[in-house]
Write a structure and sequence with these properties.
This protein is mainly beta. It contains 5 helices and 27 strands.
Amino acid sequence: MKKRLFVLMLLIVGSLTSMAQSGFVFAAGNTANNSSYSFGQLFIDNQTTVNGILSEGLQQPFLYVGTDTLLVYANQVPLEYRNSIFINQEGDTTFYLLPSLGIDSIVSVMLYSVLCPQDTSVIAAYNQFATPVTLPVPSILPSGTSSVATSNDELAEYPVDDTTTVTWTFAVSDKSLTCNQQVMVFFPICGDTMTVTDANGFVYNTIRIGYLCWTKENLKSTNYDDGFQTPIPVALIYNSPMYPDTMSNLNTFGRLYSWFSTMNIPEGNLTAQPLTDSLGFVQGVCPQGWRVPTAAELQSINAGGSDALRTTTMWLIPGTNTTDFSALPAGIYHDGRFYNLMGDAYFWTCSNYDEINALVGQLAYSCSDMSLPYREKSDAASVRCVKK
């Protein structure tokens, strides 16, 4: 009997070795009192195995080898698997399940865990209404695995001053998970906490309208902010028999600049081209880091009409100034004379109309909207600057 039992155990072990996972020893047979048994032991490398017999009544010796794939969130590890069996780490784990669970079986389980990416926030550059964002990526363990397919619905650009939800999807075998990531894009600093100083030391407040950051007062500088204090050729103070107080006019309304001086090109030179940066912007008469606006940018702040841009004082007919742009009626200089103080505001743009003329934003006390007429480049008008 003992000899027959010994042979039986060898045959079972030998025949099942090819089915078993590495790290598992299995034996089965009948004891001397004719009860059946099965015995299994899991072990890690270099661990010494021990002999033992697990009495299982009349259970027939049988070995089932299976595989399973699990995909879970990282906070679910340790993960309960089947009946109160826990997987403590990601990767390949082998379980020996007792016959009381149904059949003797070995199950190789591959567990992947996903740590969802953190929410992210960025500050956009100036002059942007949308911006690309490099997203933090999820962590998948075991690290370096390529088995879990990962995708998301990220955007090429994210709207500024908004929060966008990005959904990540993970899939392996027949399992899948999703999680959400919030992408928040903020405007760069502008407004109450930000001022700008020109080459002559004049300080200007700032205001955001839409996605643009503007100087809140008209420019007063007499020198270019070019590092050399180069004088600005045409930088005039309003002066007329009706309004002779030039110091008051300067403090209230700023200076009036020709288009040539605004663009920092020689006076009267109709062929010279202004210096532009890599984005095509013109600093011109503006302080470092600021630029002359385009006609389209001046038009973009006109959504609320002329009233929303004009101050509640100084005008023949006051505005509401709901945008806080605080446009003042500084008038214009043309052909040797000053005109329209208290009645109109004119702001140069960097946009050409033709060889002799350029586009100017005009606010009139009697008109409901800003217009964009052309004026001779030798005329002198106010300048508001936009942050680069």
